[in-house]
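Record pair follows.
FIRST:
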Amino acid sequence: MASRYFVRGDIDGFFGLFIDNLLQLMLIDVLCRYVCGLPAELVAGRIIPGAAISILTGNLFYAWQARKMMEKTGRTDVTALPYGINTVSLFAYVFLIMAPVYNETKNPTLAWQAGLLACFLSGVMEVAGAFVGDWLRRNTPRAALLSALAGIAVTFIAMGFVFQIFASPAIAIIPMMMILMAYASRMKMPFGIPGGLAAVVVGTGLAWILRAFGFEFFQPSVNAGHLGFYPPTPVPGDLFALLADARGWKYLSVIFPMGLFNVIGSLQNLESAEAAGDSFDTKSSLLVNGIGTLLASFFGSAFPTTIYIGHPAWKAMGARAGYSTVNGVVIVLLSLIGGVSVVLRVVPLEVTLGILLWIGVIITAQSFQETPERHSIAVAFGLLPSLAAWALLLVETSLRKAGTTLFEVAPKFGSDLYIYGVMALNQGFLISSMVLASIMVYIIDRDFLKAAAWTGVAAVLSSIGLIHAYRLTPQGIQSQFGFCAAPWFAAAYAMTALLCVWFYFLRKKEGENDGAAGSVFGS
């Protein structure tokens, strides 16, 4: 018996995925305009439609994929993979690529073009990951991948937005607590309303009621776009404008790990779906994931798409294939008429931030929960570079608001704040996080040859400038690539690699099993 295209559970699944996707688009709108200086016309007319096309493409494919599995197996309970904008990449690309370009040049077009190229390169990595993803996963410790992810989650996602929530307690704390209660307790809301939707509705109503009584805690966005028709438009000229420009490639230390996260994260989500009973083809799933990101960049969006975590949750709701199709169609229709900007005139961003806070907290918690207990030290160790990057952002923002620059003030910090150490740890911090956590994993396991190999990787990365290397200029901190870019770091890591080899022989002398069979990068 053929399964129906839409079932009751698809309604719940649609609202859950739609609210998530809509929130990402709202964030893109706000962050691009207020953090990266992009005009509303560019955001509404190019970026949002480009993102919508990528979301539609993936949602239609994963719905079709689920339908094909139903036909092949005769089952009616197959749930399509959830899909949308990659939240972590969104923040990474805004705060670590587009905003620095804008702050340095005051040119919003250059900031957008840098984001486009980063998105394109991430898509290339994701497509390549369809063929090498399993190897990458086998050869990078889970603690290293999750630690770097947690570092972004606890700093650039959770901390920034929890400040914004507590700056607007009258309208933001109640929705935040509703989201935490609904998600953490796993209690169902009345009438099966998704917790996120209920919180947004309550928070929005509260904001407008207070506004009616003269308490203007919520100021509707006056700079948002307008309703109209915004068709997706290819932008190959802007996409490749920085291909031969150093500014387009200086952020590889951000792009590479984020692309790797997308590949590894998608593989883990495919495993999660298989554990829930839906075993999808790895190569085609990852290929479409990458193609969606490439389409986003080609049509003007600077933000990669990804297979979402949480397939078992959508399956538990009773969602099947229909929720994915309807979500893609509704998102693209809303985007084509400029509806995202209009939503921002009605819905305060503050009432939605509890969802992001939850995402940041749960990613951080899972980084410890989903790794072996003995490797929790490695996860904690890997958080340090992200904390340094967050600290540097606060310092630079404070100095800029005070009318000065880090170039002028850095020599005055002295031992009150070892600012040069903060800057060194900030450079390529996502890669540093992965490498340092990997080293610690193998030290904990007394697998000193693998620790030596990863320390050797750190030496190479330092020597070519992907980590720790920088130049402090009046325009800000600039990456420094080339031979011997950070010589003292390279030398220190190289000596540490030799120290790890010495510990390996000490261990052998003690008669312990070296446990170093196989690839030196294996887990």
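SECOND:
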Amino acid sequence: MSNLPPPPPPSQVPGSTPSAPQKNGRPPRKSPFSAKRNNTDPTAPKSGKQQLPKWAVWLIAIGALALVFGPRFLPSKNSEKLTYTEFLSQVRLGKVDKVSINNTSNVLSGTLSDGRKFTTTGAPLLSDADEKLLKDNSVDYNYNTPQANWFTSLIPILLPFFLIIGIFMFMQRRAMGQAGNIMSIGRSRAKTYNADKPSTTFADVAGYEGVKMEIKEVVDFLRMPEQFKEIGARIPKGILLVGPPGTGKTLFARAVAGEAGVGFLSVTGSDFMEMFVGVGASRVRDLFQQARKMGRAIIFIDEIDSIGRKRGAGLGGGHDEREQTLNQMLAEMDGFETSEGIVIMAATNRPDVLDPALLRPGRFDRSIIVPLPEYEERLAILKVHSRDKRMAPEVSLETMARATPGMSGADLANLVNESALFAVRRGGKQVEHVDFENARDRVVLGASRESLVLNADEKKATAYHEGGHAVLASVLPHSDPLHKVTILPRGMALGVTWTLPEERHTYSKEYFEDIICKAMGGRVAEMIVFGNINSGAANDLEQATGIARRMVREWGMSEAVGPMAWNSQQQVFLGEDLMTSGREYSDDTAKLVDGEIARILRTQETRAREVLTKHRRGLDLVAQRLLEEETIDGPAVLRLVQQGLSESASPSSSTTTEVAQSEIGREPG
């Protein structure tokens, strides 16, 4: 129920930060070695025939139909349309010279005495009276049946043949397309960018000056290889970028290509794997062939651990598809010289699973750590991602940078975006500080569960539980500073006590003991106040037990066990033998380790009970304030604890009050 992240071991690899691209004001470089812009596969055969586009075929069909049926619907330009009554009137007046009667459409057309043409529609057959009228007025009339269009008469006969031919052509094209896909399955799926496309440069990457300096040698070699040849220096063939997820490893690779002005081939490790045997090796060969055709180029393989894991895992034999793909990659990396101008860059967040042959000199010669951002780098990243946001003047990015330790560049980008979303939901016109606070709570703690309603007893128990965490976080000397405490349900927790870890790279034994003691605070507070415990401390106990186990087994912080370390059991897929991967110590040592873990947990539980008993009045005040306001910040908790000490001391003695207040933050370790 509390925010107690287990500290990373000293050997943990920190990570880095991506940043949004920005214009640097200079035109993109063009290299004489860059390939021509072509979005298609350069190795695909070119056909000499040009097929008509689909719209042309439809246009021809519509034109043919218009020629056949159009004349029937187009009226004559020089004819006057009369009603049948008007036609008879003109006949009686002797103004009609001749009439032609169409037996098919019952249309009467003819010529008047003044030369005008007319049309009208009559009955299928003229009545005897009408026919006598025409004869009496000397009107020349006749019946005619027009012949049908020969093309129209052929349509019912030819239409079935056209449909059958079309179906056969469609099936043939489908078969040819599938055959083409099968023939091209061994081609590389790398995305190709020429020298003009990767416009990302080092100016687009916020911070990370140390990482930029290490990669700058590759850029200088791709720009001016003659300087290296004169001295006899050899640039590394491969560069491995190592760092946690979201730290901008792909962004660095694209920045190198943009700075050097060369082609860039981007592919992920999973693109080499297919259901057919040998496809991965074939795609590796095709990838390097594409790079050689481009002249100087950078091949970037993201998530290389998916194909570069240790061989001989002990399961499945030694001839699986992944191993064959890795073998082909090792052979290709040995098959070219650095003088060709091809540099391989790869990214991974699991360097421990890579095959040793992949990391030896001559292949991936250099490993560059892309760590999690420090304060200055977090501030630069927040500024980059806040450029296109409408920020309120009171928003302090410096405060947010200090309050987000351990966040990667991707986390910071998400934080800025979530703050903008909160501003929209609030109906504001700009992003304010409260939006950043809500966004940070949403990202770190989870979404607020407003639909969850606690009864009075559960709410009171949660208030004392979180109050126990908050009081210990305020008074323990080595604890991280308390940021806020709330009893509003968030994520999977009914309440949260949030501390802000300070920037540090090594951790003392006293720091871990304070974390365990603070984790025990919620459980102990409930035992002191209510005399019983509930299931709300499950997560606290899990975190405390994990830290105590690592103190004993990995960090040598137990006097009984001594300076000995046992890591967790290796997994089979890392290349360890299934039969030999087991416990590295005897049963007696296991009993000693379990005893030390239990001793540490019970010692810190007793310590938490003593501290909370001493600050019982402060615990009551914090719990009461939580029941009233539901959320209070760290300084308010500290004031309530000081008030509790003052009320517990003699009210008539100011000296006693000052001594009691000075004891805050100096509890025994």
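COMMENT: The chain has four domains: 72-146, 191-369, 375-445, 456-662.
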